[in-house]
Amino acid sequence: ATVFVPCAGKDPELAANIATLLEQDYPGPVEYLFVTPSESDPAHQALLGALAGEGARVPVGRARARLIASGKKPERSSGKIVDLLFALDRAAPESEIFVFADADIRAARGWLSALISALAEPGVGIATATMLYIPVAARLGAFLRFLWMANGTPYFELTGGVTGQSCAIRRKDFEALGVAELWSRSLLEDLALAARARSW
Question: What distance in Å separates the CA atoms of residue 146 and residue 148, rounded to the nearest whole number?
């Protein structure tokens, strides 16, 4: 499996979030591709520090993490998608599953295994998991965002939606559906993928 994580800007929680992604209980080989818009982006420097101790946390041979910078400017799609398309070309050729995760999620240890094992169920082409926003401060805006996210989760279940917060798809299906080309002219990767998946 290859896990793609686009990162940009400053986020004081980035190192803690990345640690949860790297400490998954997934039993198979997995690579993590962290991609930033440039090496001068604040996220790139933060990731250099966060990934420095990665070898101490992840058993050798089970996972590896790479940090890359796209150096690309968006023209027909969002910056996030430009970075994802750059990272897609650098996935290990033997990778069978593509997993996409936002850098602001704090994943439980079974997150990756649950996403990938769902693809083994008959008729499942994409597995997705929504994020539940947890306020860290007692502010009205933070509480309203919590309510919005919590109430939106059933929507994805009812509509068969895909959320860019985290999702997994077989590489062969990703390529057969022409997702990279679709994304190259999209602003929101999850909405574009959801529409293509429904027609599939």
Answer: 5
Sign for the pseudo-dihedral over CA of 66, 69, 75, 77: positive
User: Hunting for tokens 């058993």 — which residue is that?
Assistant: 59
What is the C-alpha separation between 86 and 136, in angstroms, rounded? Answer: 33
Measured from the Cβ of residue 89, the count of other Cβ atoms closer than 10 Å reads 7
Dihedral sign, Cα of residue 186, residue 188, residue 192, residue 197: positive
pLDDT digits (tens, 9 = 90+) for 122-179: 989 999 887 777 777 788 887 887 787 777 777 767 777 787 789 999 999 999 999 9
**Other CB atoms closer than 10 Å to residue 199's CB: what's the count?**
6
Alpha-carbon gap, residue 164 to 125, rounded angstroms: 15
Residue appearing with tokens 């996972």: 63
**What predicted TM-score, i.e. pTM, was given to this entire model?**
0.87
Spatial contact of 65 and 32, defined as CB atoms under 8 Å apart: yes
